[in-house]
């Protein structure tokens, strides 16, 4: 570009030219403003999230083991190995069942609690704040809290069991009890999250339909089923989507409470991937597993988004 | 739902209302007590003498208040180092989010540009992916760059993990501002960055506070990133520190619970500060309160 030299010549004597140059710079700045405002953020996200994700995709096609320097290309080999291994099937099914159970428990308890908290009563704010604490507790700490409560010798649960004359249980050792313990630790953090979303949804509900329903003599249960739940659909969809995402990301609680055991009884996908990568050093396989998990999460979310969109459109038609 | 019911009933049914309110208190208190049990038990265990910790019988209130566990946490374990490392990393993450986040959020809120949809979708997608999927290649990259066991690696990684939420949340706050405010300033010749610093940032202080709190808590609570990116006392953070109380012969529950209480304190403080904005932050701005 001939720019700099030219500028120097003109710049000396002509103020008018300098102004126009500046305004040109301004125009350029304005035109590309969104891009350079976003640049630092996208740069760091690209480097630390996007690039590794793509890199993982690349690694997933290699026979990549940490101890070996040769990393031959194996195509879909890792994906085939993952999909055909018995343990992956078990862990996948387990993670899906785990997510379904947690969601059922969380939404039932959270919705009931939110309906009560939505009433006007003194001290409501205090209840609300305390309800939030479990959700913001570090998952590691939550894991230790429950590991301590479920401790087979000195845990609170067995102290209570012995106190009321029941036999103490090996909570984290017997497979089904271990699964129950993991679910309890997870919903303990999930319930407040869903609850606060439901409460926000309840508080944003329009009043007139409910007044009309009361005039028409609808019972509380009818109002809940015919009005509250349908009107809350968007909030419920958001909550559901976020919970599905997070229930396929549960790691800390497993790492602290059971390490996936006994056997594979409480193993969920993230911990399974972590083990493949850092215990077995099978980076290629672990990367393939990561991408399968990303893919599963997306597939699970698609019906929710489609449903939500058609719901929003039909609502628009109704009004 | 029930609030409408009440307004239409007025005062005539106040007896029934009293009964309903009492039922609400009772049910909520029971649920709250159950939800608080793990936290209460953590606190109670941390101040018990050892004989009570290793008891098969239920002892509700400690007979003697003991602070040995809290001393042990600093004397026998490296809690001070964990806390220091965590605070340094958290500080770095908050600072970088506060500098990088607002301009990006402003661009997403106020400009229509090519690729906008892709960026929006990309940010949601980044919130969705399992961390485990990214942490392995990140480990490879950081080890190639010889950045393992450094504050820099932890701050960079955490900053990137928090930025999508930061941008979404701030975007929601900026979109709430009347457009005329910054439009007129831009017509008067202020640069976009000038508008952000002088006009937008002072108006979205609550949003910034909420974002900072969320970034802090997510970093403070994180296990996986430190677990993979650091393995020396120089950079280990408090969540990973808790696992050091699991010893070969068993768990040192006394010191562990004391460390847990210390780790829990900032959570409590920040919940009380930022409670009002948490809903928005946790849903990336999708649900407003």
UniProtKB/TrEMBL annotation, chain B:
Classification via SUPFAM superfamilies: MetI-like
GO biological-process terms attached to the record: transmembrane transport
Domain annotation ABC transmembrane type-1: ranges: 83-274
UniProt keywords, alphabetically: Cell membrane, Membrane, Transmembrane, Transmembrane helix, Transport
TM regions (residue ranges): 22-44, 86-106, 118-145, 151-174, 195-220, 252-274
Pfam families registered for this protein in UniProt: BPD_transp_1 (PF00528)
Membrane topology field: Multi-pass membrane protein
GO CC aspect terms: plasma membrane
Major localization class: membrane
The keyword Iron belongs to this UniProt entry's keyword annotation: no
Subcellular location: Cell membrane
Family classification: Belongs to the binding-protein-dependent transport system permease family.
PANTHER family with a match to the protein in the record: INNER MEMBRANE ABC TRANSPORTER PERMEASE PROTEIN YCJP (PTHR32243:SF18), MALTOSE TRANSPORT SYSTEM PERMEASE-RELATED (PTHR32243)
Record-given protein name: Carbohydrate ABC transporter permease
Species whose genome carries this gene: Caldilineaceae bacterium SB0662_bin_9
């Amino acid at each position: 570009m001939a720019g700099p030299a030219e500028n120097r010549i003109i710049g000396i004597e002509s103020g008018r030219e300098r102004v126009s140059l500046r305004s040109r710079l301004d125009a350029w700045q304005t035109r590309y403003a969104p891009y350079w405002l976003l640049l630092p953020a996208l740069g760091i996200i690209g480097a630390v999230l996007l690039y590794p994700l793509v890199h993982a995709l690349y690694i997933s096609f290699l026979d990549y083991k940490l101890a070996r320097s040769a990393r031959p290309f194996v195509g879909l080999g890792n994906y085939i190995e993952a999909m055909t291994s018995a343990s992956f099937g078990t862990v996948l099914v387990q993670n899906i069942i785990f997510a379904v159970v947690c969601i059922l428990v969380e939404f039932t308890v959270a919705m009931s609690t939110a309906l009560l908290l939505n009433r006007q009563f003194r001290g409501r704010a205090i209840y609300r704040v305390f309800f939030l604490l479990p959700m913001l507790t570090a998952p590691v700490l939550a894991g230790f809290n429950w590991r301590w409560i479920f401790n087979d010798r000195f845990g609170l649960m067995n102290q209570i069991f012995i106190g009321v004359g029941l036999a103490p249980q090996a909570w984290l050792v017997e497979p089904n009890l271990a699964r129950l313990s993991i679910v309890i630790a997870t919903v303990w953090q999930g319930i407040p999250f869903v609850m606060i979303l439901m409460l926000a949804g309840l508080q944003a509900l329009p009043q007139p339909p409910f007044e009309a329903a009361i005039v028409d003599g609808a019972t509380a249960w009818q109002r809940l089923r015919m009005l509250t739940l349908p009107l809350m659909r968007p909030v419920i969809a958001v909550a559901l989507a976020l919970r599905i995402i997070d229930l396929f990301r549960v790691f800390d609680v497993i790492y602290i409470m059971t390490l996936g055991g006994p056997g594979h009884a409480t193993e969920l996908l993230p911990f399974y991937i972590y083990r493949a990568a850092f215990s077995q050093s099978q980076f290629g396989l672990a990367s393939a597993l990561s991408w399968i998990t990303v893919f599963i999460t997306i597939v699970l979310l698609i019906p929710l988004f489609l449903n939500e969109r058609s719901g929003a459109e039909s609502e628009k038609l109704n009004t | 739902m029930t609030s409408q019911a009440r307004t239409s009933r007025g005062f005539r049914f106040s007896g029934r209302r009293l009964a309903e309110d009492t039922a609400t208190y009772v049910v909520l208190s029971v649920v709250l007590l159950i939800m608080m049990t793990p936290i209460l038990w953590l606190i109670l265990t941390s101040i018990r003498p050892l004989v009570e910790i290793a008891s098969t019988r239920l002892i509700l209130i400690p007979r003697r208040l003991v602070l040995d566990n809290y001393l042990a946490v600093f004397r026998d374990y490296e809690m001070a180092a964990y806390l220091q490392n965590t605070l340094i990393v958290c500080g770095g993450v908050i600072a970088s989010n506060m500098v990088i986040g607002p301009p990006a959020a402003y661009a997403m809120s106020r400009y229509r540009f090519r690729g906008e949809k892709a960026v929006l979708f990309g940010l949601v997608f980044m919130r969705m992916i399992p961390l485990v999927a990214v942490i392995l290649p990140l480990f490879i990259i950081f080890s190639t760059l010889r950045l393992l066991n450094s504050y820099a690696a932890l701050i960079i990684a955490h900053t990137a993990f928090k930025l999508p939420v930061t941008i979404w949340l701030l975007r929601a706050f900026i979109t709430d501002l009347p457009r005329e405010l910054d439009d007129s300033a831009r017509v008067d010749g202020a640069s976009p960055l000038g508008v952000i610093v002088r006009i937008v940032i002072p108006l979205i202080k609550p949003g910034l506070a909420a974002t900072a709190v969320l970034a802090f808590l997510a970093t403070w609570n994180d296990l996986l990133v430190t677990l993979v990116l650091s393995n020396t006392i120089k950079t280990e953070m408090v969540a990973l520190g808790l696992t050091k109380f699991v010893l070969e012969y068993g768990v040192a529950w006394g010191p562990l619970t004391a460390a847990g209480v210390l780790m829990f304190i900032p959570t409590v403080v920040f919940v009380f500060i930022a409670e009002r904005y948490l809903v928005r932050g946790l849903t990336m701005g999708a649900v407003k309160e």
